[in-house]
Design brief:
single chain
Length: 104
């Protein structure tokens, strides 16, 4: 009788382990496919800071490019292309930072 009890416990433990692994993998996939909220926010803030920093002609070009990239990222976000949106938003932020660095 004890043998059957241990066999039953082993099945429950295996099922529990498989369930935990399944949900862990599922959560990892969901986190990879989430919207790039932070990157979009960072890009918007960097663009705003560059605009407020007093733009020279050269930095104005960078700001325009950053705004264009941000619009592209927003379009990708609306289409569910989160990876593209994240990369494009990061590029927009980098352009805005360049604008800040070239400002007088």
């Amino acid at each position: 009788m004890d043998c059957n009890r241990y066999l039953f416990m082993g099945v429950i433990n295996r099922k529990t382990a498989i369930t935990v692994i399944y949900f862990s993998l599922l959560m990892a996939l969901i986190s990879c496919a989430s919207a790039p909220v932070q990157e979009m926010s960072d890009a918007r803030q960097a663009i705003q800071a560059a605009k407020e920093g007093g733009a020279s002609a050269n930095s104005q070009t960078n700001i325009s490019k950053a705004e264009s990239l941000l619009k592209e990222a927003e379009a990708a976000l609306e289409n569910g292309e989160y990876k593209k949106a994240k990369l494009t938003a990061t590029e927009a932020r980098n352009e805005a930072i360049k604008a800040q660095q070239t400002s007088p």
